[in-house]
Amino acid sequence: MSRDSSQPRPRQLDRRTLLGSGLALASLVGLTACSTGSRDGGGSGGTTGATASSTPTDTFPVTVKHALGSTTVEKAPERVVCVGASNTQDFVAALGVVPVGMTKVAWGGNDKGSTDWFDAKVSELGGQSPQTMDESDGINFTDLAQLSPDLIIAVNSGVTKEEYGRLTKIAPVVAYPTGPWVNSWQDMQRLTAQALGRAQAGEDLVSQTEKLIRERSEDLGGAKGKTFIYGDVTQSLGFYGPSDGRPRFLTELGLSLAPVVKENISEKEFWREWPKERADELRSDLFVAAAEDDAQAETFRTDSVLKTIPAIAAGHGLFLTSKQDVLSGYSSSPLSLPHALDTHVPAIKNALGA
C-alpha cells in the first residue's frame, strides 16, 4: 500500500514498491456504468487499446476464490472501494464501474492523487472522482468505513490476514489471486471481473489488451528479443526479478530478462541487491532504471561504478525520468498499458539504436 518517495515498494516486502501509468483505450463493449467512472490514458493521438464497460452478465450471488479465502457477493455492488496499488481502481473502472473510494496514488500520480488514464475513464463514464485515502501508514479503516462500501477490491495489495479480517467486518473483500504484490495484471483483472459479475467482459479486456501488446511489440524492430535488466540505482545497486511488474511488462513487450537476473533471483523474489564491486557482471543488451530528472540520469550514466555495467558502458542505458511513464508499465492495467506502450517502445528503440 505505502510507497517511498524514491521508487515505491510494498511495505510488507521491502522499501521498493509500486509504479504505474497509462494510455487511451478504445471501447470493446460500450454499455452502462455503476457509481462513478473513467478511462483513457494519457494524451490524444496515442495508442488505443481495449476497455469493456458493461452491466453485470453473471447471475448473483457470485463466489470468488482468492489467496485469503473465498468471498460471496450477494448482488451487483454499487459502492466499490479499492485498496492497494495504483492499478486496483483501473481494473474496476475498465469494467464500467467507478469506485466511490480508492487509495491515493502517491508515486507517479497526478495532482488529484489519481492517474490521468483512470480520470479519463471516469470522465468517459460520466462519473464522479472517487474519494482518495492516504495509505502511507497502512489501510485507513476509518475513512474506508465511512464510505459505506458494499464491496472492497484489494487484488493488488499487501493486505494481511489480520487486516483482511477487519475489512470483512465492513464489507465483502476480494484479495489478491495468489500472494501480495506479485500477481499479473491479467489475473487481477479476471478476479475483479468475477467479483463484479462481469467475467466475460474481463476475459475480453485481457485478450484485447494482450493483442495490443503483441501488435506494439512488432514496433520494436531490431530491439525485440534483446536482453535487459531493470535495475534501481537510486539507493543501492540492484535489480528487479520476474515477479515484479517492471520486468514483467518488458518481458510481455518482447524483451528477454538477462541470464544474470534469472540465475541470481528466485521466481518469488521481486528485488535483489547487487555488490557494486561486481557491477561489471550485470551483462545485458539494455539496462533500465528510473531517475528523478535528466540531471540525475546523466549522473548515473557517468557514475564510476555504473559505467562498468556493460549496457551503460555501451551507451544502452535507459533512464526513465517520468514517474507517470514508469508507473504505467510497472502498475499495468488495460487502462495504463497504452500509455506504457507509447512511451516505452520508442524509448527502448532509441536506447538500443534499433
UniProtKB/TrEMBL annotation:
Alphabetized Pfam families for the sequence: Peripla_BP_2
Bias type Gly residues, positions: 39-48
Protein localization: Cell envelope
GO cellular component assignments: outer membrane-bounded periplasmic space
Low complexity bias (residue ranges): 49-58
Region (Disordered): 36-58
Primary location class: other
InterPro entries: ABC_transptr_periplasmic_BD, Bact_iron-sidero_bind, TAT_signal
GO BP field: iron coordination entity transport
Fe/B12 periplasmic-binding domain sequence ranges: 80-352
Alphabetical keyword list: Signal, Transport
Keyword RNA-binding among UniProt keywords: no
Family per similarity comment: Belongs to the bacterial solute-binding protein 8 family.
Name used for this protein in its record: Iron compound ABC transporter iron compound-binding protein
Species of provenance: Kocuria tytonicola
